[in-house]
Amino acid sequence: MKEYIEERVLVTAEYIIENKATVRTCAKQFGISKSTVHKDVSERLLMLNPGMAAQVRDVLDQNKKERHIRGGMATREKYLHMGQ
Question: Closest Cα partner for 56 from 46, 47, 66?
Fold first, then answer.
């Protein structure tokens, strides 16, 4: 694996852990695609740092459990602003 990819993998993983960030948020923060972030943290990180990969997996699993709540809040906000 190329050095710049390894560095990107570790930086994005650290960002996700520290900020409890979603894949989408992380991709937007670093200007890369969601699929790149997902591949980095689910495949490449496992080879580089299995302990950090487990931490990222915990954050992403928690985000997955909560996504219906965030979606509902976004819909609510959308319709609140439409009435104005």
Answer: 46
Q: Residues 58-70: pLDDT tens digits?
A: 999 999 888 777 7
Tokens for 36? 């790149």
Q: How confident is the model at residue 84 (pLDDT cuts 50, 70, 90)?
A: low
pLDDT of residue 71: 79
Pair 13, 40: CB distance under 8 Å: yes
Q: Which backbone phi and psi does 49 adopt, to 5 degrees?
A: -150, 85
Residue-wise DSSP of the chain: --HHHHHHHHHHHHHHHHHT--HHHHHHHHT--HHHHHHIIIIIHHHH-HHHHHHHHHHHHHHHHHHHHHHHHHHHHHHHHHT-
Q: Which amino acid is at 2?
A: K
